Amino acid sequence: MSHKIPEALRKTAFQRAFNRCEYCRLPALDSYYGFHVDHIRSIKHGGATSIENLACSCPDCNRNKGTDLGTFLDDDTELVRFYNPRKDVWDDHFEMDESGMIDHKTNIGAATVKIFQFNHPDRIIERRLLWPIGLLP
Ligand SMILES: [Zn+2]
């Protein structure tokens, strides 16, 4: 969710993320729409507007995540939290290749791929264009 975030925090969040979405790794410079600074733990759920709780996010990831914190996987009754860029290592939970797909390695990865819609056809096409010119992964 977009929320009033002081400019200094926005700048720090973007710099720390090397101007990439911290969820799907899309580079900010190549996105038509402006990137967002996401509250990893949403304000609705008690998250603070502090650098430890902020993540640079592309519009698709930010919109699809909304204020959610996790989800249920298809055949399970246990809530699985989303990937947290402040606690988790991307390569531990996901992998990406020139096909444009982002595959999960863990349940946390699966929950994130599902709700953030990492593999929506438009997003796969965008990654296939960025991969050969070295802007991904
Ligand atoms: Zn993203």
Describe the model.
The strands form three sheets. Strands 1-2 form a two-stranded antiparallel sheet. It has one domain. The protein has five helices and six strands. The chain has helices at 7-16, 59-65, 90-93, 107-116, 121-130, and strands spanning 36-39, 54-57, 70-72, 79-81, 94-96, 102-104. A hairpin with a 6-residue loop joins strand 3 and strand 4 (79-81). The radius of gyration is 14 Å and the shape is globular. It is 30% helix and 15% strand. By secondary structure, the chain is of the alpha+beta class. Residues 21, 23-24, 26, 57-58, 60-61 line the site of zinc ion.
Strand content: 5-15%
First-residue to last-residue Cα separation? 25 Å
Report the biggest beta sheet as strand number plus sense, adding barrel if it closes: 2 strands, antiparallel
Bound small-molecule species: zinc ion
User: What is the β-strand count?
Assistant: 6
Quickly count the helices: 5
Q: Write the H/E string, N to C.
A: HEEHEEHEEHH
